[in-house]
Design a protein that fits this description.
mainly alpha
């Protein structure tokens, strides 16, 4: 089993490396916010900032993103928190 990625078990610098490594599957091993990953978050750095800052765990961020952007069955649902 790998090392824990929980906030309580990591430093800020380790969390930065964890996020960068998780996003390193792009062409040149760095995220340039190209929106090519189709996550629809605009800035991936902004999305994971609460984890890096020690406010939300990775799973919480991913759950929140999924709850706001996807519906059961894989369809896209508008962000319920945005006002039109």
């Amino acid at each position: 089993m790998g090392r824990s990625v929980l906030i309580k078990d990591t430093t800020r610098e380790e969390r930065i490396r964890i996020v960068n490594k998780a996003l390193s599957w792009c062409d040149d091993s760095s995220c340039e916010n190209c929106s090519g990953c189709s996550m629809g978050v605009g800035s991936v750095e902004a999305m994971y900032a609460p984890y890096i800052d020690g406010r939300l765990e990775l799973r919480e961020i991913n759950y929140l993103h999924a709850a706001r952007h996807f519906t059961l069955g894989g369809g896209y649902a508008p962000d319920p928190l945005e006002r039109t």
